[in-house]
Amino acid sequence: MYAPIWAWSNWASYRILLIVFLVSPLRGGWRRLGPFICHSSLVLPFLEFISVPVPNPIPMAYLRMNPQPVKTSNSLFNLLPKRSSLRPARVRCSSSSSPTRHYAITLLPGDGIGPEVVSVAKKVLQRAGSVEGIHFDFQEMPMGGAALDLTGVPLPKETLEAARSSDAVLLGAIGGYKWDKNEKHVKPETGLLQLREGLKVFANLRPASVLPQLVDASTLKKEVAEGVDLMVVRELTGGIYFGKPRGFSTNDNGEEIGFNTEVYASHEIDRIARVAFETARKRRGKLCSVDKANVLEASMLWRRRVTEIALEYPDIELTHMYVDNASMQLVRFPKQFDVIVTNNIFGDILSDEASMITGSIGMLPSASLGENGPGLFEPIHGSAPDIAGQDKANPLATILSAAMLLKYGLGEQDAAERIETAVLNTLDRGFRTGDIYSDGNIMVGCTEMGEQVLRAVDSEAVAVSR
Ligand code: IPM
Ligand code: MG
């Protein structure tokens, strides 16, 4: 349905598109078309110029953030290139000049360390919001094992409804020993997949950057890890996680078998590829598509479609890599990567691997976006039941997920940047949770780390005290 519109890439077509856009009263229709129209950096300034209030499809907000390619590197938050998060801190207060914006946020603390890290991130959101003129209405809902204990299902329909009707969703983590042996339909993980499916968030952005402050925390040699700055774009609502047929059965020998299906339709590959190309355009212009096209048909189609979509992005350097090689290259020479696009299961695996380059999985946030509707923001770490309730968890991945929520979910870049800068400032002042601790720093727990980030949010100019 969208293909012909997307394929229009000549000037005359843009003009027709623009005229149709101006006369169309069908805002609902345009909401769906918005992301596709705006793939072009030619159209973006046009839309800005005529000030048509474009509704709020998420990739639209995402694409609008910076239509120009930016070639800078070595920033944790390269998708926000207007101002570098690594620049000197400063105090800013926009609340006096602009009216307060209101947003409804669904909080899904979940299990294990989830509630601890979400409660810290909530405070950080509130504080950054109050400085930047934003008011949040938070609604906390059960999810995962917590929901199982309460209601018998891992994603109660009230939780999904609340998430759907809010502006953005912040999730902690789900799962734990207690539910490990549950049947599939009553596993906490099943609730997470239902949530992703229910919100239709097909694009999962997982940045992995080595911060200068944490280079010693990496398990790789300093010269390998230093300067790594990559983004995994993981397809999130398709592939083997959702493919049918699936299940348990018996084979001809009467032996029990378990089976799943890796399946991708062209449109699923095309849309994630476009997100990845757009992401590369905002970064260093390099995209590596990871597949297993030497063996799997679904990967063969994947490679063919990505190669086809590349024709729309002549400015992006596209390479293809088999997943086994990619997993090796990630630890051999990770600096070669800018953006990696891959399917659901390879993205799951490679993003965990990439996180270790940066020192700790406790640092990595993620954003899951759909064509419209609220985005889902979550740290990529799990529920860590072994340290749950001990105030040992690193809340930074969730705090940074809250920053992604502001940036990609709400388009509140100043507030997002305030949080990112506060995190860097807190690290600069030497505060470390156990997972990122190295000699000479100050070991703190989850709550204290949160307090230090809050302090830095209040005044981004908190002095480096070491
Ligand atoms: C992740 C997790 C989930 C996934 C699990 C908890 C279902 O590992 O978000 O990476 O496999 O997607
Ligand atoms: Mg995972």
Brief summary:
It contains 17 helices and 14 strands.
End-to-end separation in angstroms reads 58 Å
Distinct helical segment count: 17
CATH class descriptor name of the largest domain: Alpha Beta
User: Approximately what portion of the residues adopt beta-strand conformation?
Assistant: 15-25%
Biggest beta sheet summary: 10 strands, mixed
- Give the names of the bound compounds: 3-isopropylmalic acid, magnesium ion
CATH H-tier superfamily of the largest domain = Isopropylmalate Dehydrogenase
The total of beta strands comes to 14
Count of domain modules: 3
- The CATH topology assignment of the largest domain is Isopropylmalate Dehydrogenase
- Tell me roughly what share of residues is in helical segments: 40-55%
The structural class is alpha/beta
Q: What is the CATH architecture term of the largest domain? A: 3-Layer(aba) Sandwich
**Nearest-integer average pLDDT:** 83
Please give the oligomerization state of what you see: single chain
Structure explained in plain terms:
The protein contains 17 helices and 14 strands. By secondary structure, it is α/β, with parallel strands linked by helices. The chain has 3 domains: 8-49, no CATH class; 76-87 and 97-200 and 370-466, Isopropylmalate Dehydrogenase, CATH 3.40.718.10; 203-359, Isopropylmalate Dehydrogenase (3-Layer(aba) Sandwich), CATH 3.40.718.10. Helix 6 crosses helix 16 (413-428), helix 11 crosses helix 12 (297-309) and helix 16 (413-428) packs across helix 17. The longest helix is centred in the N-terminal third of the chain and has 19 residues, at 114-132. The chain starts with a helix and ends in an 8-residue tail after the last helix.
